[in-house]
Specification:
It is a single chain. With 420 residues, the chain is mainly β. 12% of the residues lie in helices and 56% in strands. It is built from four helices and 22 strands. The radius of gyration is 32 Å and the shape is elongated. It starts with a helix and ends with a strand.
């Protein structure tokens, strides 16, 4: 438990340090002023899921932080992202079913935003995600920018009110891109998705034999392999009838654990969310004794319980990592699935009556299983390539639940990892 307490102390301190640095992640970037001047520096970058309403910029050679909103600058680039500012009409029609009306015409409002540029060419494709998680795509051609409309409305038909999807964006694209022969067929089967629209705009600009200034790279998963080693503490908690195990108490078992892991960082989400998958080799050994002795009749009865199990355990966790410059605290929650590759489950009964000795060995638990499932929760810290993970798991143990016996397993881990 002291190790778990130490992990908690380190986690709290790392979290506090990162909170003091308050979500700062300045990396190299470039802004383009409204006078078309290019200024190099660093931008506070968070791999935005929603388009930023403002950015913080530090000019090269200075320390002053300047905040820019759309239209205060013309554009900026950071990491693999390219943003342009624009004042446009945006579809503000609610997509909640209870708010939908019978009009096919969208409710447009004027707003000033930073567009994420997907394709910049003769026909450009822009993306904007509003605060209500709605995705908007825009086309810009001949210096005219308009939203590609994709919404829902109710339509009365035969005394029924039907939910209808408007595919107006398809006709808009046909109108704008018709000067490329053969592209109309692609548009008719086009879904309102970023990857499909991006491919269409690349094809159009190639068809027109015009230069493309920028193409957005796909947001890919990041795969982080780890090698894991550490200690495990296992405690068996039995709930049985008196005739089964009685008041036998098993001490905790402390052993080593070794394994491999793959952390899959999800696109966007500022690299804070990931799926952590771990294959761990773990074991525990436990013994307990229970005895009775009567001196007046020279009788003694001793019972020795032995549990020795070795598992391959697959753990799948949803991991949330708090971004920091050096220390990155994280929180885990998920499930475990373990399979016993070795099992010892014995009860040895030694009986002594006067000079006669009797010995019997049989299963300590009549009905055991090889598969064990559980839940896990934990905290940890990542520093460069080194991780420290403190975790608690509760499993349904190797004992099959019955009227006579029920058991749960408490597991504590302190694991050190190296990320390749």
């Amino acid at each position: 438990m002291k190790k778990i307490t130490a992990c908690l102390f380190l986690f709290i301190n790392a979290f506090a340090i990162n909170t003091l640095t308050a979500q700062k992640n300045y990396i190299k970037g470039v802004i383009v002023t409204n006078n078309n001047d290019t200024v190099h520096g660093t931008i506070n970058y968070h791999n935005w899921d929603e388009n930023p309403s403002a950015i913080q910029f530090v000019k090269e050679g200075t320390t002053e932080v300047i905040s820019y909103k759309p239209m205060q600058i013309k554009a900026f680039t950071v990491a693999t992202d390219y943003y342009e500012s624009a004042t446009v009409d945006i579809d503000a029609t609610s997509q909640r079913l209870e708010d939908l009306g019978n009009s096919i015409e969208p409710l447009m409002i004027k707003d000033t935003v930073f567009f994420s540029v997907y394709v910049k060419g003769e026909a450009s494709l822009y993306y904007y995600k509003s605060k209500n998680d709605r995705k908007h795509f825009f086309i810009k051609k001949n210096n005219i920018t308009e939203e590609l409309i994709n919404n829902y409305y109710y339509k009365h038909l035969d005394d029924q009110e039907l939910l209808v999807k408007s595919d107006k964006y398809k006709q808009q694209l046909i109108n704008h891109l018709a000067d490329c022969s053969g592209i109309t067929e692609d548009i008719t089967t086009l879904n309102y998705r970023g990857n499909e629209l991006l491919k269409l705009f690349i094809k159009y600009n190639k068809c027109r034999n015009t230069s493309v200034v920028f193409i957005k790279k796909s947001d890919n998963f990041i795969f982080e392999p780890f090698i894991i080693a550490g200690a495990s503490i296992t405690k068996l908690n039995f709930f049985t009838t008196p005739d089964y195990l009685g008041d036998v108490v098993f001490n905790r078992s402390t052993n080593f654990a070794l394994g491999l892991a793959l952390n899959i960082v999800l696109p966007r989400k500022s690299k804070t969310a990931s799926l952590y998958n771990e294959l761990l080799y773990k074991t525990y050994q436990m013994e307990a004794f229970r005895g009775t002795k009567y001196y007046d009749i020279n009788y003694s009865n001793t019972k020795k319980y032995v549990f020795n199990f070795t598992y391959l355990k697959l753990t799948t966790l949803l991991r949330f990592t708090y971004p920091g410059k050096k220390l990155n605290p994280f929180f885990n929650i998920g499930m475990t699935n373990a399979y016993a590759i070795r099992s010892v489950n014995t009860l040895t009964i030694e009986t002594q009556i006067y000079n006669s000795h009797y010995s019997e060995t049989k299963p300590a638990i009549d009905d055991i299983k090889k598969y064990e499932a559980g839940i896990a929760i934990g905290i940890g810290i990542l520093y460069k390539h080194i991780s420290l993970d403190c975790r608690y798991e509760r499993g349904n143990s190797m004992a099959k639940a019955s009227d006579q016996v029920r058991c749960v397993t408490d597991n504590y881990y302190v694991l050190l990892g190296y990320r390749f």
